[in-house]
Design brief:
Layout: H1 6-36, H2 42-56, H3 62-69, H4 80-100, H5 106-121, H6 129-161, H7 167-207, H8 219-235, H9 238-247, H10 253-273, H11 279-293, H12 301-329, H13 333-356, H14 375-383, H15 390-393, H16 407-410
Helix pairs in contact: 1-2, 1-4, 1-7, 1-8, 1-9, 1-11, 2-7, 2-8, 3-7, 4-5, 4-12, 4-13, 5-12, 6-10, 6-11, 7-8, 7-10, 10-11, 12-13
């Protein structure tokens, strides 16, 4: 086995930077609903999520194996430069969607980056298309739908079981349940997303001859990846937390509990069988499902539509950036240096743009522009309208659109 070269060291550092961006980009997956309902204070929530992300990183290596020896054929001439270019593509897309406050998939950004860089540098034959379809694309479509349906059914069942009981008392119980389910989502996130960086670093070590092909990630890789994603999680991606917690639908404690429990179940099951799915899409689907499951609930479909567009663009966009980076990196040392400098400049420009209108934990209650319920929500409410009488008049269900009400009143 060879020693770690300078280039492999740069790839490892870049992978940990991606892991860091993954952490603050995906904090909202676990904690957005818990923060929005007041079950936990923002700083406490992200601290708990960070610790459990770190713990989850040690529980499984199945997803890491999918990355290091699954979607890319490491024996087809993959070099560290290719992995470096793929990581640059993923980081740039992560930062762009973070700036826009869109909960896109860090996982798919990584897959798109690796695939795009591999195609440009080595060719299509180095991509295991069947693995991409079975373990990336199919879960990408199925997971949010399954999680959303489960959350919708669970939300309706939850409200049915709590019918006639004191709302304040049940809210206390659901808030406690939210804390437990949020912890489970954070743990599940560590078992899935932290694994992806482990897989990338292991792939770089394999291409450099440091470890044997099909090896499990070394312990130091597991520890460093877990710490990187935990640190990113602790800093908190407040822009995306605001989008999921307030901008997608109005979340009440029973909905938050149902959404998080459904999401954690799907993520843990996928981690067990090695599906490298998008935890962002799963949690977003669960939140939308919980919004549809509550009578009188509103899903802001313009926000959901922007999210869906970002989901569809993530793989090809990250792939295009990474492909361009791979073309430059293939030119030699000057090309790798150019890619690194351009990556730093773009990242710095995005950060500078974010400072013009910063979002912190103190501004999470700012709700994006309100909008009417939309055709889908209106149709669902026609089938199962909100209860009439005093309950319908209460502020908590005042979101039902009625004739003569303004869009802002309808979404309040």
């Amino acid at each position: 086995m060879e020693h770690i070269t300078l280039l492999i060291g740069i790839v490892i550092v870049t992978a940990l930077v991606f892991d860091f961006t993954n952490g603050f980009h995906d904090t909202a997956n676990a904690m957005a609903t818990t923060i929005s309902t007041g079950a936990l204070k923002p700083k406490v929530a992200v601290a708990m999520s960070a610790v459990l992300n770190l713990v989850g990183a040690f529980l499984s290596v199945e997803v890491a194996k999918t990355i290091s020896g699954g979607i890319i054929d490491e024996s087809a001439g993959i070099r560290p430069e290719v992995i470096f270019a793929g990581l640059i593509g993923a980081i740039v897309w992560n930062l762009l969607t973070w700036l826009a406050g869109l909960p896109s998939s860090s996982s798919h950004a990584l897959f798109g980056g690796l695939i795009g860089a591999t195609i440009v540098s080595v060719g299509f034959n180095a991509v295991n298309a069947d693995k991409v379809v079975m373990k990336v694309l199919i879960p990408a479509v199925a997971a949010p739908l399954v999680a959303g349906l489960a959350a919708m059914v669970a939300t309706r069942l939850t409200y049915r079981l709590a019918k006639g009981r004191d709302e304040k008392e049940t809210a206390k119980g659901y808030r406690a349940g939210q804390i437990a389910s949020a912890a489970l989502v954070s743990l599940a996130h560590g078992t899935n997303d932290a694994q992806k960086t482990m897989g990338v670093i292991t792939l770089a070590l394999v291409t450099g001859g440091v470890v044997a092909p099909h090896s499990d990630p070394p312990l130091w890789v597991i520890v460093s990846a877990g710490l990187a994603i935990a640190l990113g999680t602790y800093l908190g991606g407040w822009r995306i937390i605001r989008t999921l917690g307030k901008g997608l639908t109005d979340i009440q404690p029973p909905q938050g509990f149902a959404a998080q429990t459904g999401a954690a179940t799907v993520i843990l099951a996928s981690s067990h069988i090695g599906f490298a799915l998008s935890t962002t899409q799963v949690c977003s689907g669960s939140i939308m499902g919980s919004g549809l499951g509550r009578k009188g609930g509103v899903v802001r479909w313009s926000t959901a539509g922007r999210m869906a567009i970002a989901w569809c663009l993530t793989l090809p966009a990250a792939g295009l950036v990474a492909g361009g980076a791979a073309f430059l990196a293939d030119q030699g040392d000057w090309g790798v240096t150019t890619v690194a400098v351009l990556g730093l400049l773009v990242s710095g420009a995005i950060y500078a743009a974010s400072r013009r209108k910063p979002v912190t934990h103190d501004s999470l209650d700012e709700v994006p522009d309100a909008e009417p319920a939309g055709v889908v929500t209106a149709a669902l409410q026609a089938v199962a309208p909100p209860p009439a009488g005093p309950v319908a008049a209460a502020p908590v269900v005042a979101v039902t659109p009625e004739a003569g009400r303004t869009p802002a009143a309808a979404a309040s």
